[in-house]
Amino acid sequence: MAKYLISFPSAAMNVPDNELEQVGRDARAAIREAKAAGVYVFGGGIDESVPPVLVASNGSVTDGGYPWAPPLNGGFTVLELPSAQEAIAWAARIAKACRCEQELRVFGYDPES
């Protein structure tokens, strides 16, 4: 089975304020379904109030992320699934719950993970 990253950037979620509570309930319900199905690995949202830092191999720290890369923000879920078709189906469930499209990526296989 492969692990899939289902994610969205913060800017993709354009939900009216009066719908945010329902979106939260729907998103948590989708995650509970994934847990009940035994496919949930990990998920969450980037805490955008904590700025990123770059840590070098010598342990030195520089404020900010990679200056050339777009910011990493938003929410993500990692699921372990037997096929890309099932990953697409779960991404669609999460997209429906979050009211925004989800990006789907597969992690490369690593026998140590």
UniProtKB/TrEMBL annotation:
<protein>
    <recommendedName>
        <fullName>YCII-related domain protein</fullName>
    </recommendedName>
</protein>
<dbReference type="InterPro" id="IPR011008">
    <property type="entry name" value="Dimeric_a/b-barrel"/>
</dbReference>
